[in-house]
Amino acid sequence: MASLGNSKNTIEVLQKYHFNFQKKFGQNFLINPGVLEEIIDAANITKDDFVLEIGPGIGTMTQYLCEAAREVVAVEIDTNLIPILSDTLSAYNNVEVLNEDILKVDICKLAKERNGGNPIKVVANLPYYITTPIIMGLFESHVPIDSITIMVQKEVADRMQVGPGTKDYGALSLAVQYYAKPEIVVNVPPSCFMPQPKVGSAVIRLTRHEKPPVEVQSEKLLFQVIRASFNQRRKTLANGLANYGAFSLTKEELAACIEELGVPANVRGEALTLSQFAELSNIIFNSSAMHN
Ligand code: SAM
Description:
CATH architecture of the largest domain: 3-Layer(aba) Sandwich
Structural class: alpha/beta
Number of domains: 2
Distance between the termini: 64 Å
Strand order of the largest sheet: 4-3-2-5-6-9-7
Order of helices and strands: HEHEHEHEHEHEHHEEEHHHH
Shape: elongated
Number of helices: 12
CATH class of the largest domain: Alpha Beta
CATH topology of the largest domain: Rossmann fold
Strand content: 15-25%
Bound molecules: S-adenosylmethionine
Helix content: 40-55%
């Protein structure tokens, strides 16, 4: 039975092992059983599933995952947590803990070896200092993924969900929405963690699209166009693209591409939808091909 999801049992484990929280690893452990159940429910885990957990901490959510899934691999960077995890997960024979940095793990290989290359589920209360590289790494390296259900900073969850014309809209919104359907599951206050973070949190589920909602000639070019547009927020799209330096077209040629898209010459990147970015990247792709 999962037993750690409350402050009393968590404190007991921490004291038994004289554990000191490491700020640099973004350690805020969940101490609320209700929130843990919501995460597990939202992730829709069955006994057929292979689950990757990022940052198991003392194993609080891992216990729930072991009970729901077929197999769990939990990747934890902090060596001091490894003996604790051996203890708190000793009742489960369907879990392996890897003492590694998630950003260095070959997750495609893991999915291939452990799940026959079939889509895996990722569940995590993420270390907030590396939320974006973790998510983008999972998507861009084309790991076979069914869904990613994660606790993130509330503001970051909002950024993933919003559309054009809002202040939170940016490269992360577009990248996430290109790969997945984002849905905020629940907002979580600081009091549900030990120690309490300074910011509010939210659980968000990203359900991977079978096929991206837009078609592009080059994904790499699409993301370059997106990055260029948001690199200098207060600049027009034309200046953003021209100043980025990664395109083989002149400033005038890039302006012609924007005109071909049919938007005003002084438009800002934050006004464009994902389909408009896709169309613009295809126009730039075709124009560049003509010049080569
Ligand atoms: N899952 C636990 C919970 O909910 O109580 C702990 C979550 S805590 C927010 C984040 C965890 O990620 C910590 O255990 C931390 O040590 C671990 N972590 C931080 N950076 C990591 C990295 N690069 N790779 C793997 N784990 C990491």
